[in-house]
Amino acid sequence: MSVAVDKTKLNKFVEKSATEWGAALGVLLTFAGDRLGLFKAMAGAGPLTPEELAGRTNTHPRIMREWLAAQAAGGIVTYNADSGTYELPQEHAIALIDENSPAYIAGAYQMITGLFKDEEKIIEAFKTGKGLGWGDHHHYLFQATERFFKPNYVANLTSSWIPALDGVEAKLKNGGGGAKVADVGCGHGSSTILMAKAYPNSKVIGFDFHKPSIEWARKEAEKESLKNITFEVAGSTDYSGDDYDLVTFFDCFHDMGDPAGAAKHVLQTLKKKNGSWMIVEPFANDKIEDNLNPLGRLSYSVSTVVCVPSSLSENGPALGAQAGEARIRDIVTGVGFSKFRRAAQTPFNLVFEAKP
């Protein structure tokens, strides 16, 4: 028995797919513009011909003509048909080149480009279920993660997230010795450095099991001449020290091979009286159907190729980037934390506070 095909639905799906093909290739082209400094050359320069842009950037004019046309079709630059020139709007320039802006998005293009370089490893993970460890990805992922997340931390960490915690900000600012902070899963250390700069009276230690990231973080801290910060290679279940006033996990809890073990270790290393654990996670609702939107699609997609394989590589529960508040609460309270609450949120993150 044949099944009737709705040709209108079929055609709409094919049209949608064509849009996605252009967007997928657009990621590569936009990252090329980032690497070659094309957007920086266009920012504030007004209308430019392909030849003028090529001259400014030491690139080939014929390829610049095609690149600019593709960027114009994607709405990244604008095209003036009368003059044959292209222009980068100021607002787009902020998002693409201003690393100090909370709207800075260039890191996302590098991240996606890097994940395509891991195609064979990802396919193998799909087939075997053995996972793909964080450190086994292309180095673009480590660089891009910092570039992508840092603007959000700059915009929110010390201005709204830490102030939302119970009495933590006052301890961090205390001139009588400040507080002791462990930043676990710190990666390239952008969150660690932000806290060390904002709270010079406190001691901040960044931990990550990925040695190249810790080496990167140390070099970045040296550039800032910070005296109250150190970095150590260590995992979430065995990092050193105790009696911490604050332990922080930024966008990493759901990736871990043993999140319950990590939670237990935090409980053991945190001050029993008024210690706080801040867990920053991607924004997610508890039900799948409530996450079926553009942000949810992005999170599920990255989670499929990064977060879930990372946890599976350590025989973990593979919480995924859309784990949601209820699931995280169950793990945290299940190991003995008596208090758990949503302290703050943004369109992209949920910020939880747990206390012994």
TrEMBL record:
GO molecular function, one term: methyltransferase activity
One of the protein's GO biological processes: methylation
Coiled-coil residue windows: none
Domain Methyltransferase: 178-283
Keywords, in A-Z order: Methyltransferase, Transferase, Ubiquinone
Superkingdom of origin: Archaea
Keyword Methyltransferase: yes
Positions of the S-adenosylmethionine-dependent methyltransferase Rv2258c-like winged HTH domain: 24-96
Protein name per UniProt: Methylase involved in ubiquinone/menaquinone biosynthesis
Annotated organism of origin: Candidatus Nitrososphaera evergladensis SR1
